[in-house]
Design a protein that fits this description.
Radius of gyration: 19 Å
Strand order of the largest sheet: 2-3-12-11-10-9
Shape: globular
Family: Belongs to the protease inhibitor I3 (leguminous Kunitz-type inhibitor) family.
Largest sheet: 6 strands, antiparallel
Helix content: under 10%
GO molecular function: endopeptidase inhibitor activity
CATH class: Mainly Beta
Signal peptide: 1-31
Keywords: Disulfide bond, Signal
Number of strands: 13
Pfam families: Kunitz_legume
Number of helices: 1
CATH topology: Trefoil (Acidic Fibroblast Growth Factor, subunit A)
Length: 208
């Protein structure tokens, strides 16, 4: 008598796929905790200014309206001055942990976006744009599904912001290109080590 084996439902394999993505990005014992410019460990859900350094001008990151945007949806580096820290960014992980390690899946969202911005004002990556893959707020149909993470740079206590696409698993560093209007836009770089080096400052910190 033959024994019938029930087929495994496709939802089972999809669940395994999702589990593999999240478990592969869990903090490992070898991963260091990200620190801010004061040397303090990154709090999960903390609010920070992201400050690009070395070879790029001006201040922290903020929002600007580019192209046909009627609301500022494009993440840019501030042109105001080098002392302007930009808009504060909430950096959080979906995991229930107190501190953020390097390489962990992260959400980045502006803490005080303009009223016209979508809610929640999370950073996304949009493809098929003239500048390549750009960092923007939600609102575009060509948004790439994925997540951000913070990786250590070649310089001690300084970091790079990286975006990983969910479909391919490939990651690219966040860099800056300057458009024809002098706007410093955040984009994904095509070459390794072309991303900007950044430091993080607590939004409550005094000074620059």
């Amino acid at each position: 008598m033959k024994t019938l084996i029930a087929p495994i439902p496709s939802t089972f394999f999809f669940s395994l796929f999702l589990l593999s993505i999240f478990t592969s990005n869990l903090p490992s014992a070898a991963a260091d905790v990200v620190t801010d410019r004061d040397g303090d460990a990154f709090s999960n859900g903390g609010t920070y200014h992201i400050l690009p350094l070395f070879g790029v001008r001006d201040g922290g990151v903020e929002l600007a309206a580019t192209g046909n945007e009627t609301c500022p949806l494009t993440v840019v580096q501030s042109r105001t001055s080098k002392i302007f820290r930009g808009l504060p960014v909430i950096i959080s992980s979906p995991y229930r942990i107190a501190y953020i390690n390097e390489g962990l899946i992260l959400n980045l969202a502006f803490a005080s976006p303009p009223s016209c911005a979508p809610t929640p004002p999370k950073w996304t990556v949009v493809k098929d744009l003239p500048e390549g893959q750009a960092v923007k707020l939600p609102g575009y149909s060509s948004t790439v599904s994925g997540w951000f993470k913070i990786e250590k740079s070649s310089l001690e206590y300084l970091y790079k912001v990286v975006f990983c696409a969910r479909s391919s698993g490939t990651c690219g560093e966040v860099g800056i290109i300057v458009d024809d209007e002098g706007m410093s836009r955040l984009v994904l770089t095509e070459e390794e080590d072309d991303g900007i080096i950044v430091e993080f400052m607590k939004a409550s910190s005094v000074g620059v």
